[in-house]
Amino acid sequence: MKKALWLLLLTCLAATAADDKKVFVTVDKNNNLVFSDSPSPGATQVTVKDTATQMVPTTPGVSTSVVQESTKFEVAISKPEQQGTVRENSGTVYVSGQIKPMFAQGLRVKLYLDGKQVAGPTGNANFILHNVDRGEHQLTLELLDQNGKIIATSPVTTFYLHRASAISPK
To answer: Which range marks the domain in which residue 28 is found?
Structure first.
């Protein structure tokens, strides 16, 4: 009976396993099966695979690019605020963008500071700029599809960076 149970257990493990994960099985002094990921004296190795993930089929004839082209995306810069002041002596500016509707797979974002591309294209709408000079600056985000075509542009956000100066009187 115990041998039949042992064979059934090993058969079930072998049937559901498909990856090269190593599992070792031993029987303790009370005849209980003990599973471990490290070998011990008298252990039998059982090969276990991850369970398969189920892929959701896409609708035939409708590609993601067609869906993205038919969707009107809106891009906006939420941080820094329009006409806002950033006080940061190191010149670090944190930029956060919002994309509506929800950010889709394959889309990329570029960030422009004063008309020059400073970041991207990337799959994230949050950026950190370093060593930005003091003064007035303009930020713009561009949303690109998987082919690199611009599908949305944010309004220009103007912000002011204040940095302490060693030559300014106190």
So the answer is: 2-48
User: Does residue 122 contact residue 142 with C-beta atoms inside 8 Å?
Assistant: no
- Residue 160 has a pLDDT of 92
CB atoms within 10 A of CB 159: 20
**pTM as predicted:** 0.55
pLDDT at 17 over 60: no
Confirm whether 55 is domain-assigned: no
Structure tokens at 17: 């396993």
Average pLDDT for the chain: 77
3-state helix, strand, coil in the chain (%, to 5): 15, 40, 45
CA distance 18 to 20: 7
Specify the higher pLDDT residue, 145 or 56. 145
Round to whole Å and give the CA distance between 63 and 68: 9
What are the beta bridge partners of residue 67?
Answer: none
Same domain? For 83 and 22 the reply is no
71/65 Cα distance (integer angstroms):
10
Structurally, the chain folds into a number of domains equal to: 2
**Pairing mode of beta strands 157-162, 84-87:** parallel
Six-digit token pair at 6? 């042992």
